[in-house]
Amino acid sequence: MDQTFSAYGLKFSYPADWEVEESREPGRFSVTVSSPATAFWTLYIDFDSPDPEEMLEGAINAYREEYEELDLYESSAAVAAFPTLARDLDFVCHELLNVARIRVFETEDFTAAVVYQLHDKELEENGAALDAVTRSLMWDPEGV
Question: Do 12 and 136 contact (CB within 8 A), yes or no?
Fold first, then answer.
């Protein structure tokens, strides 16, 4: 991991050759890092602090609306030392098996979701990088 992103007390590392895109609107913020291929990792922050279960269901429903065949698995992954509501998804798009991970957690200041996705042909090349970005995520409440 060669680059570091920092905002709202959150910090994470990502590969130097990946692109970063931010989106800000009242009460919400997101940042996406994308590989040169199709893999991406997104952090969504909602300062209105919606219920984590609602945020998780909203993310899952977005995938359900887009993809007919969707397999859903519970996960116990943690993010930034926070317990999460976590799901792993598999789905077919353009005849490729795709993998997505959704991790929702809350802090005293916001509810956040980490979503990352790639197709199975990228797993070897970018799967570990996506996991490393997630593991590198840290939160400092003093930085909000």
Answer: yes
Cβ atoms 93, 119 nearer than 8 A: yes
**CB–CB of 63/70 below 8 Å?**
yes
Statement: residue 144 has pLDDT above 70: no
CATH number at residue 12: 3.40.1000.10
Domain of residue 8, residue span: 3-143
Q: Does the pTM of the predicted model rise above 0.85?
A: yes
Number of domains in the chain: 1
Model confidence over 70-106: pLDDT tens digits?
999 998 888 888 889 999 999 988 788 899 999 999 9
